[in-house]
Design goal:
- By secondary structure, the chain is an alpha+beta fold.
- It is built from six helices and 17 strands.
Length: 320
Amino acid sequence: MYAKAFLPPDPKISAVPVLPADNRLKKYGNAGTGVAPAENHVYLLEDEPSHCQRLGLVWRLQEVELKGTAGMMIVRRESQDGKGKGRSETFSVDATTRFWRGKEHLHLSDLIEEKVLPENGVQSLNDQSVLLGISWKPTPGGVFKRFHVSDVWMDELAMERAAQIQNENHKAFIKSRWMPGWVDQVEYGKFGRAKVTVTLFGGMDDSLYADFKKGQKAMLASSENTLKHWAGGTAGTAQMASKGILLEVSKTQKRVPLGSSGIQVSLETNLVTEGFRPGKVIRIRPESWPLLEVPREEYINHKTDEIEKRFPTPDIFPKN
């Protein structure tokens, strides 16, 4: 995984441990330098194939050496246009490595049977262009930093199908957890009524944004900045949500900041809660999405899950 991150904006309410600002410069034994950066609020997180596609990179398969169902593969990552060669890397492969070719899901044994790979010995792979999934597995011989090939996407169709599957997972997840956003403005009315204007978070599939339509019913619920549901006891998201009508749905034509969709929606509700204040994070669900319950582990109970209990300080230890 590749991440771009920044320092916690407010250490007092950080959802993750706060480290010294120069922590990425410190060396931690055999783990090396930069393994524990203080920049732990991530604004971009992508896997290896997504990273390569965004930057126009590919992996070239140079050589493989197999002994039975395991071995080593020599590969290099370089620009897709072939300008300049990357540095050769040696990764491990074994029977758990998955090969994706068109609509096929293959294993090492399948490619050995097809004589694409050798049963034993060394074979050139002629710089075949692929995309790789990279993970880590325990390695012998005191090697701590060797990577393992978890997946090989052998052609464009295989990669397209992988992206389609991931996209469907993404859409199902957002529909069950509701679209995140933040409150821009609250116009208070009488007897608990209010018009709440929110901006939806960016990075979602276009079809999810298209589901927000003027005049449609919707539900609005408070959330933490970690995007966890903010619960009162064991009540679920729908139980704590306010109902209303989408009065406006608009998209700005101006340049939007990173993380924003630029899509703003206004909801009129007769039950405005403490979580609906400008700058607060919320979750919103249009009526067309299924109404589902999420596991209790995804709730934050403000009475029992305080930050001091989630991230204890040294004060929990007795003093002599």
